[in-house]
């Protein structure tokens, strides 16, 4: 089946890397391995893939009152956490023969290229998976915002938000058994129904730039391929 998209930005949550088991390790290698295989299926189709990965499994910037750490300082710690996840993802992809480049929004040239938009575009054109680490490089933002921003900069056709739930529901499916999944929804309806797809900054960036979002369950093997083939997986926001 032909892919529906030529270039996608995959936003992976850090927390989803934990998988089902919580044994204290920041990530479950089986999950990263599964992600790598799923990404390979998509690159094998010729789809260009850029990835933004979160850091919530390792560190998340918190309220200063709770952590005792100044907000901006904690946010930089969170951004560094995303680089650890990005390196893990990179290692697993390269292990199965996918060419990758890691670009970081915070300079650390021993482990990553600096973020250079035009260079990233060139990598994508050459079929390399580009992983963007360190979020936007700025405190007070999230990796969802980094995902939206990089997707727009890379002129991706869509942002694929891989999570542990299989789409957007009318209510929290874990709390309300009557909750129903949307197959499609407009940006405006997400706002009117107060549905939290991404944080407001990330969501607004997508809406203003007419960048569609697909929310889907990344922890289900094969799902990413189905999304890229345009099958009815997850929820499309457009
Ligand atoms: N962060 C930041 N600026 C960014 C991206 C991330 O300050 O552009 C920090 C922020 O503290 C955030 C943490 O990095 O809580 C980890 O990212 P996020 O919570 O988005 O990860 P996820 O929820 O996807 O695992």
UniProtKB/TrEMBL annotation:
<dbReference type="GO" id="GO:0006225">
    <property type="term" value="P:UDP biosynthetic process"/>
</dbReference>
<dbReference type="GO" id="GO:0033862">
    <property type="term" value="F:UMP kinase activity"/>
</dbReference>
<keyword id="KW-0547">Nucleotide-binding</keyword>
<feature type="binding site">
    <location>
        <begin position="11"/>
        <end position="14"/>
    </location>
    <ligand>
        <name>ATP</name>
    </ligand>
</feature>
<comment type="pathway">
    <text>Pyrimidine metabolism; CTP biosynthesis via de novo pathway; UDP from UMP (UMPK route): step 1/1.</text>
</comment>
<dbReference type="InterPro" id="IPR015963">
    <property type="entry name" value="Uridylate_kinase_bac"/>
</dbReference>
<feature type="binding site">
    <location>
        <position position="55"/>
    </location>
    <ligand>
        <name>UMP</name>
    </ligand>
</feature>
<dbReference type="GO" id="GO:0005524">
    <property type="term" value="F:ATP binding"/>
</dbReference>
<comment type="subunit">
    <text>Homohexamer.</text>
</comment>
<keyword id="KW-0808">Transferase</keyword>
<keyword id="KW-0067">ATP-binding</keyword>
<feature type="binding site">
    <location>
        <position position="60"/>
    </location>
    <ligand>
        <name>ATP</name>
    </ligand>
</feature>
<feature type="binding site">
    <location>
        <begin position="136"/>
        <end position="143"/>
    </location>
    <ligand>
        <name>UMP</name>
    </ligand>
</feature>
<feature type="binding site">
    <location>
        <position position="172"/>
    </location>
    <ligand>
        <name>ATP</name>
    </ligand>
</feature>
<feature type="binding site">
    <location>
        <position position="163"/>
    </location>
    <ligand>
        <name>ATP</name>
    </ligand>
</feature>
<dbReference type="Pfam" id="PF00696">
    <property type="entry name" value="AA_kinase"/>
</dbReference>
<comment type="function">
    <text>Catalyzes the reversible phosphorylation of UMP to UDP.</text>
</comment>
<dbReference type="GO" id="GO:0005829">
    <property type="term" value="C:cytosol"/>
</dbReference>
<keyword id="KW-0418">Kinase</keyword>
<dbReference type="InterPro" id="IPR001048">
    <property type="entry name" value="Asp/Glu/Uridylate_kinase"/>
</dbReference>
<feature type="binding site">
    <location>
        <position position="169"/>
    </location>
    <ligand>
        <name>ATP</name>
    </ligand>
</feature>
<dbReference type="InterPro" id="IPR011817">
    <property type="entry name" value="Uridylate_kinase"/>
</dbReference>
<comment type="similarity">
    <text>Belongs to the UMP kinase family.</text>
</comment>
<keyword id="KW-0665">Pyrimidine biosynthesis</keyword>
<feature type="domain" description="Aspartate/glutamate/uridylate kinase">
    <location>
        <begin position="6"/>
        <end position="217"/>
    </location>
</feature>
<keyword id="KW-0963">Cytoplasm</keyword>
<feature type="binding site">
    <location>
        <position position="56"/>
    </location>
    <ligand>
        <name>ATP</name>
    </ligand>
</feature>
<dbReference type="InterPro" id="IPR036393">
    <property type="entry name" value="AceGlu_kinase-like_sf"/>
</dbReference>
<feature type="binding site">
    <location>
        <position position="75"/>
    </location>
    <ligand>
        <name>UMP</name>
    </ligand>
</feature>
<protein>
    <recommendedName>
        <fullName>Uridylate kinase</fullName>
        <ecNumber>2.7.4.22</ecNumber>
    </recommendedName>
</protein>
<dbReference type="GO" id="GO:0044210">
    <property type="term" value="P:'de novo' CTP biosynthetic process"/>
</dbReference>
């Amino acid at each position: 089946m032909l892919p529906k998209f030529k270039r996608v930005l995959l936003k992976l949550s850090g927390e989803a890397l934990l998988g089902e088991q919580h044994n204290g390790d920041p990530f479950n290698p089986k999950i990263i391995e599964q992600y790598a295989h799923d990404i390979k299926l998509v690159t094998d189709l010729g789809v260009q893939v850029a990835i933004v990965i979160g850091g919530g499994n390792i560190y998340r910037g918190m309220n200063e009152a709770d952590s005792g750490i100044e907000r901006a300082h904690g946010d930089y710690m969170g951004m560094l956490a995303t680089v650890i996840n990005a390196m893990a993802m990179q290692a697993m992809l390269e292990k199965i023969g996918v060419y990758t480049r890691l670009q970081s929004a915070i300079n650390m040239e021993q482990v990553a290229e600096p973020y250079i938009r035009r260079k990233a575009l060139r990598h994508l054109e050459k079929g390399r998976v580009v992983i963007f680490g360190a979020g936007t490089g700025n405190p007070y933002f999230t990796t969802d915002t980094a995902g939206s921003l990089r997707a727009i900069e890379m002129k991706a056709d869509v942002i694929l938000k891989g999570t542990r739930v299989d789409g957007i529901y009318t209510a929290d499916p874990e709390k309300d058994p009557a909750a129903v999944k949307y197959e499609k929804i407009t940006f405006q309806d997400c706002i009117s129904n107060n549905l939290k797809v991404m944080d407001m900054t990330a969501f607004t960036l997508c809406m203003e730039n007419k960048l569609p979002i697909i929310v889907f369950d990344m922890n289900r093997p094969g799902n990413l391929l189905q999304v890229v083939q345009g099958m009815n997986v997850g929820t499309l926001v457009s």
